[in-house]
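Q: I'm writing up a methods section and want to include an example of the input and output format. Could you take the sequence below and give the corresponding predicted structure tokens, formatted cleanly so I can copy it straight into the document?
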Amino acid sequence: MAWSLPETFTFRGQAVRYGTLGSADKPAIVLLHGTPFSSIVWRRIAPHLIAHRQVFYFDLLGYGRSEMRAGQDVSLAMQGLVFAALLKHWRLARPDVLAHDFGGCTALRAHLLHACEYRSLTLIDPVAIAPWGSPFVHHVREHEAAFAGLPPYIHAAILPAYIAGAAHRPLVADDLRFYVDPWLGALGQPAFYRQIAQMDQRYTDEIEPHLSEIHCPVEILWGEEDRWIPVERGRELASRIPKATLRCVPSAGHLVQEDAPEAIVAALLGFLAPTG
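A: Here is the clean output for your methods example:
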């Protein structure tokens, strides 16, 4: 399907792009992507949800089509604040939430630190339990300026190799381009290294002691072949959240949306409570 983010929400003078699908007379579900992706990661998932929910989606601040600028705070702390503000803007008091990777931490922070309530929470390979971050991430964090100033052709060679490692199956060129293109050019290249430089374990450390306080239904999906965050982290997370269920997805890596989108749809539709 064609993917568009026609609406703009302004947060502290910065543009956050978003879109909606489906009918407003249905309960809401909000989709949160992770890093280094954008909301287009949901393009194969969202069409199957609109028969049951009105779908809300957006690009995290500093990602995709949302604003990128020098000196921008795109940390997980900021993303949690942006998400809480978006829920108020949308007037969504208790939506279902589907969140992947950094989006998972964003949703958890909004719930545990900013009093956002959810009808249900589905997490896909989320960043939630320390330690996290690949060797590449740790190296870039120490040398952000050097990487941001790479010749564009070197950056354009590194980026696809890094992103492709998130999937278990090879990504076809068109799908890979969806994820690479926002990080190219005079704005995109420094923004890519900026968001890595601001990855800090303290943002998950802040919420880990509160995971047992989550009171909405929680389902966790995890790619069995995830090379970015091992499935053992998913088992640990499920043990800390009351009554959370863990579903391991075979033949899927960190980017389950590309490896097994049908598994996400099936699990989600089976998990969502009937709307009456």
